[in-house]
Amino acid sequence: HGLGRTPVPLTGQRGPCLVAMGPLSARLLMQRGRPKSDRLGKIRSLDLSGLKLLSEHLDPKLLSRLTQLQELDLSNNQLETLPANLGLSHLRVLRCANNQLGDVTALCQFPELEELSLEGNPFLTVSDNLKVSFLLPKLRKVNGKDASSTSSQVENLNRELTSRVTAHWEKFKAALSPGEEAEKAQADFVKSAVRDIRYGPESLSEFTQWRVRMISEELVASGGAQVREADIPERPPKAPAAQEPRARPVAVKRPDDVSLSPSPNKRVCTSSSVCVEGSAPGSDDSRPALDLEPLHFLQCHSKNNSPRDLETQLWACAFEPAWEEGHAGATSQTVATCGGEAVCVIDCQTGIVLHKYKAPGEEFFSVAWTALTVVTQAGHKKRWSVLAAAGLRGLVRLLHVRAGFCCGVIRAHKKAIATLCFSPTHETHLFTASYDKRIILWDLGVPNHDYEFQASQLLTLDATSIPLRLCPVASCPDAYLLAGCEGGCCCWDVRLDRPQKRRVCEVEFVFSEGSEAAGRRVDGLAFVNQDVVASKGNGLGTICLWSWSQTWGARGKQSSLAVVVLARLQWSPTKLAYFSLSTCPDEGIVLCGDEEGNVWLYDVRRLLSQQAPLPAAPQAPTQILKWPQPWALGQMVTKTMVNTVAANRTCTYLTALTDSNIVAIWKR
C-alpha cells in the first residue's frame, strides 16, 4: 500500500528533475539563449527551464537588457510570482508550466503575448484563466489550446458586469445625501459594488469581483461617465477547435457535454398519487413543499463522448463544501459526479462542466471532498480543495480540481472500493470501504511544495459483509463509525488512542424484533441531525429514522442492539437495491431516488419535534419530483432509475444521477 509520488497533470507528465540554481548571470543567459551571441540585446529565444529558480532570481535589471526577446521558457522552476517590471515588451511566447504561481496579474506587462503555458501551477484557478484572457488581448493559445472561446466568455462577462455596475452607480447616486463628501462617497461606492454585485457561477467569483472593482474605480475616476463595455479588442471568429476528451482549465461548456434542458414550461410536479397513512404530501403546516424546478440535464460521462451512450451508470455525487472562513451559512453550487471512467465537476447554476478527469479502464463508484492547507517554500499558506475518487480498481485518486491534475494515487485495496468519506474533524483522514470486506482509515498527510503526498494506514476495520455506505457518528465522529453493509448496519470504535490497529465490528444494529430483520442489507445511511439516523434497506418500502443516543445508551455489553425507531417514512416498494439516500441536515430534509426516476423528499423537522409517541404508520413524502418526459436524445429514454441524489447545504440545488448516464440538476 503506497502512494504514487509523481503528480500527473491532466495534460501530460511533469518536467525533468530540478537542479540547484543561484541568481542569473549575463553569461548564463548568453549560454542558454538563441541565436548564440555575445550581446544580450540580440537574443530572441531563452530557455531557463529546470533551474529551480525562485522569484527573486529574476533580476529586472538583467532581463530588461533582452530587448529583442520574443520567447521565454521558465517551466519547471519554483516561481511564486513574476516581477512586475521585467521590461520584455516584445515577448510573444511565455512558458511557465510546473511552478507555484498564485497570481497572473503581472502578465499585463507583456501586451504582445500570443502563446502562454501555465499547466501544473496548482494554486491557479478558473478565475485566473479568465484574468489571463482579459489582460492579454493578443493571446491566441493557452496551454496549447485555442483561446478564443475563453475570450468570448470574458467579453460576455465583462459586458454584463459593466451593465450591473452602471445600474448600481445610478442607484447609489440617487441615495446620496447632498452634503456627503465626494471622495468618501466614491470609496463607499466601490466597496458596495464589490460586496453586492454577483453574477455567474461561484467558481468565477474571484474574477467577477476583480472586474467589478476595476469597472467601479474606472467609473468614479471618469466622474460617472459611461464605462466602456469591454477593454478587449474584437477578435476575428475562428472555427471551434477539435476537443480532446480531457479536462480544460477554463469553465466553458464543451461540445461533448450534451445539455438536455427541458422546455421552459416543463415543471416539476408534486405527486398526489401516493396513498399511505399519515400526512399527505406537502401537508406540513409549518413549511410548504420545496419549489424545485428542473434546470439542467447533462450527459457528461459518455463513453467516447458519444451522445448515444445511455448505458453508463452514474453512482455518486457530492457537493463541494464552502471552505471559506467567516462566511457563516455559505454554501456551494459546485458538485462532483462519478460514473464510468470519468469524474466531472459541475457548476449547478450554469450547467458548465468545470473539470473532467478520465481514467481509462476505471469505473468510479464514489467521490468525497476535503480541503488541505499547504505551505509553499516561501512559507505562504494556500488552501486546496481536493477531491478523492475511487472505484473498480481499488485505487484512490486525489484530484486537485481547480488546477486540473491528479496529485496522488493510493493503492488502497486489492478489490473494488464501494465508498469512501473524509473525517469531518480531520481534513487528512480518509475512510475507504472495499469489496474485500475491509474499511481502512488513511492519513493522507499534507502535500509538500512538490505536491507529493505520503499516505499511511491508521486503522483496518474488518466487516463480515461488504460495506456499502460509511457514516461517522455526527455527535462523536472521532470515536465511532457506522457502516451500512450487505449484511446489516454495524459500528466500529475508531478512537486512535487505543492500541489495536485492526478491529472488528463492535455492535450490529437490528431494526425490528426477532431475527427476521437481522442480516438484511443496509444500502442507505446518513445523519439527519446530531442524533437522528436515516437508514434504508431493512424493510421494503420504508426509510427508518432512529435515535443514535437512545440506541447506544442501552448497549451495555451487547454485541447486537435493537435500534430505537422514531419514525418510518414511506418509500418505493421496489425490491431493487443500491438506491443511496442522503440528507440536508440544515434543512431537515431526507432525499432518495427510486426505480421510476423519481426523487422522494421528506421534510422531517416537524415530525421529529412532535411529542412521543410518534405516528406508527409510515409517513408520506412531503414531495415527489417526477422525472420530466420525454427525452430528446436522438432516441427516447422512456424509463430511468435515480441511483443517487444529493443537495447542497441550503437545499438550493439538487443533483440526481441515473442508470442511463444523465446528470439532472434542480434549483429551488
UniProtKB/TrEMBL annotation:
Residues 224-269 are annotated as: Disordered. Residues 287-667 form the Leucine-rich repeat and WD repeat-containing protein 1 WD domain. One of its GO terms (cellular component) is centrosome. One of its GO terms (molecular function) is chromatin binding. Keywords: Centromere, Chromatin regulator, Chromosome, Cytoplasm, Cytoskeleton, DNA replication, Kinetochore, Leucine-rich repeat, Nucleus, Repeat, Telomere, WD repeat. GO terms for biological process: chromatin organization; DNA replication; establishment of protein localization to chromatin. Residues 228-237 have a biased composition (Basic and acidic residues). It holds the Pfam family WD_LRWD1. It is found in: Chromosome, Centromere, Kinetochore; Chromosome, Telomere; Cytoplasm, Cytoskeleton, Microtubule organizing center, Centrosome; Nucleus. Its main location: nucleus. WD repeats lie at residues 410-444. Residues 260-269 have a biased composition (Polar residues). Gene3D superfamilies: Ribonuclease Inhibitor, YVTN repeat-like/Quinoprotein amine dehydrogenase. It comes from the Eukaryota. Residues 27-215 form the Leucine-rich repeat and WD repeat-containing protein 1 LRR domain. Belongs to the LRWD1 family. Required for G1/S transition. Recruits and stabilizes the origin recognition complex (ORC) onto chromatin during G1 to establish pre-replication complex (preRC) and to heterochromatic sites in post-replicated cells. Binds a combination of DNA and histone methylation repressive marks on heterochromatin. Binds histone H3 and H4 trimethylation marks H3K9me3, H3K27me3 and H4K20me3 in a cooperative manner with DNA methylation. Required for silencing of major satellite repeats. May be important ORC2, ORC3 and ORC4 stability. Integral component of the ORC complex. Directly interacts with CDT1, GMNN and ORC2. Interacts with ORC2 only when non-ubiquitinated; this interaction prevents LRWD1 ubiquitination and degradation. Some of these interactions are regulated in a cell-cycle dependent manner. Interaction with ORC1 occurs predominantly during G1. Association with phosphorylated ORC1 during mitosis is not efficient. Interaction with CDT1 occurs during G1 phase, as well as during mitosis with phosphorylated CDT1. Interaction with GMNN occurs from G1/S to mitosis. This is Leucine-rich repeat and WD repeat-containing protein 1. It comes from Mustela putorius furo. The lineage of its organism: Eukaryota, Metazoa, Chordata, Craniata, Vertebrata.
